[in-house]
User: Which sequence fits this backbone?
């Protein structure tokens, strides 16, 4: 139980942190779509504390810890964000809606043109998602918490939320907050990692055009891919079926050419879900909830997971470089970390600085999009196998 | 800790296997879809059908010219060219109906 003084200091700190997040979002250093509602929510919830009739401190925003059905009904009528939290956040619906929007924005053509290479790089780009687990356990977390924080290495916010809701309900708020904070930093941090690990000469490698002209992938082919892969992955991992379905329904809608539906999902649905996701994450950063002794551990592990994933991606790039007889640009590997399309843009920018004629974006986007699928596969594997393997 | 590392490596290996299975399914799917697209173009009926549609278009154009110029010579000239495409023993009026449809 935290003392009142600690809670007071934490509240003041979180109010200031919230204001800082709004500032960083406005400046574009962190993603403004998330940081502005999150930052303001964080400040508001820690400032808007009142004494409830029973003498305890509370708020009129949300009570995430209430489980008793009678008390939940009361909370739904009193706390203005409780319905959105209970019916969209705590059951993972909001993560699925965001994923649907991501699916509509994805052009899987880049993946379908080079599936083997893209998958190879994406699998190496998931190194952090696995390597962080033993490190987290050494730092005192149990297997479920370790797997949840390790998912940050997949660089996919909805996936982290979904996995931590299933495996680590007590820590899902700080884990998801850490994930979204750090994902915004990949744009700033990964270029330095590339410069550190890939020499200038290799960064400037120009990808030769393929010997056989690659025909563009048609909408029919993309739709068939979405339908078949969705069915297979749902069959393999039914616990992660909502995530797979959400992603591939978005892809299917995009390829079906239903313009109004595409506009709705990529517009109001995606932006609405993202807005409420950021808002709820900020609101859940109330001092009582967020002041967990493990928070510092989670902050460190989040960085480790993203760092190891970036290193893993570049290792994959180097392996391809040697397999192809030094013709493959190793920087493409960083795009396998599935922060779409940030890491693909980071890769192209790093290459263009050295050789403006080198265009690696098609390869990078293929790996990037494949990374989303591999992260979803890993979420399914964790939710399915961890309770089974680690009894 | 060693058992944890082994189990994590096992999960990574499963991910690799599933990932490559998905990649090969994608490759196979694209191959099948491209094959079926090409098969349609290689269908023996396809060139004949294409020629027939082209002839219909030509006849329509010359019928319009014929009405304008009030001359049947141009139309008959083209009928001589395409007569072999239609069943034998059709006269010119039947040829028009065959390619153009009854008015």
Assistant:
């Amino acid at each position: 139980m935290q003392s009142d003084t600690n809670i007071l200091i934490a509240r003041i700190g979180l109010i200031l942190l919230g204001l800082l997040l709004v500032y960083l979002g406005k400046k574009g250093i962190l993603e403004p779509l998330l940081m502005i509602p999150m930052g303001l929510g964080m400040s508001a919830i820690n400032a808007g504390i009142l004494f409830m009739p029973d003498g305890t401190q509370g708020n009129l925003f949300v009570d995430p810890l209430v489980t008793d059905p009678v008390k939940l009904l009361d909370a739904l009528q009193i706390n203005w964000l409780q319905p959105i939290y209970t019916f969209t956040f705590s059951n993972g619906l909001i993560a699925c809606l965001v994923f649907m929007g991501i699916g509509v924005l994805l052009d899987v053509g880049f993946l379908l043109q080079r599936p083997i290479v893209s998958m190879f790089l994406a699998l190496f780009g998931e190194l952090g998602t696995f390597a962080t687990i033993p490190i987290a356990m050494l730092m005192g977390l149990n297997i479920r918490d370790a797997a949840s924080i390790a998912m940050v290495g997949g660089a996919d916010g909805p996936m982290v939320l979904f996995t931590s809701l299933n495996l680590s309900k007590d820590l899902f708020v700080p884990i998801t907050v850490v994930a979204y904070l750090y994902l915004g930093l990949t744009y700033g941090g990964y270029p330095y990692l590339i410069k550190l690990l890939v020499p200038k000469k290799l960064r400037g490698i120009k990808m030769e055009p393929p010997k056989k002209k690659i025909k563009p992938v048609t909408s029919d082919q993309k739709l068939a891919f979405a339908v078949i892969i969705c069915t297979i992955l749902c069959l393999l991992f039914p616990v992660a079926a909502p995530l797979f379905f959400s992603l591939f329904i978005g892809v299917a809608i995009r390829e079906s050419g239903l313009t109004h539906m595409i506009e709705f999902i990529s517009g109001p649905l995606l932006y609405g879900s993202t807005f409420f996701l950021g808002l709820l994450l900020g609101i859940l950063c109330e001092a009582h909830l967020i002041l967990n002794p493990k928070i510092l551990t989670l902050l460190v592990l989040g960085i480790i997971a993203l760092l190891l994933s970036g290193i893993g991606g570049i290792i994959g790039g180097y392996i391809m470089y040697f397999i192809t007889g030094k013709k493959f640009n190793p920087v493409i590997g960083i795009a396998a970390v599935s922060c779409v399309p940030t890491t693909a843009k980071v890769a192209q920018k790093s290459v263009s600085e050295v050789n403006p004629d080198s265009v690696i974006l098609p390869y990078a986007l293929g790996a990037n999009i494949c990374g989303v699928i591999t992260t979803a596969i890993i979420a399914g594997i964790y939710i399915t196998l961890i309770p089974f393997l680690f009894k | 800790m060693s058992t944890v590392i082994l189990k994590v490596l096992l999960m990574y290996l499963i991910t690799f296997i599933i990932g490559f299975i998905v990649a090969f399914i994608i490759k196979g799917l694209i191959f099948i879809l491209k094959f079926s697209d090409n098969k349609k173009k290689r269908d023996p009926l396809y060139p004949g059908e294409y020629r027939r549609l082209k002839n219909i278009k030509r006849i329509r154009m010359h019928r319009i010219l014929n009405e304008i110029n009030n001359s049947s010579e141009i139309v008959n000239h083209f009928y001589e060219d395409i007569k072999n495409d239609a069943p034998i023993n059709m006269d010119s009026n039947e040829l028009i109906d065959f390619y153009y449809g009854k008015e």
Q: What stands out?
A: Chain A has a mean pLDDT of 87. Residues 96-205+217-389 of chain A form one domain.
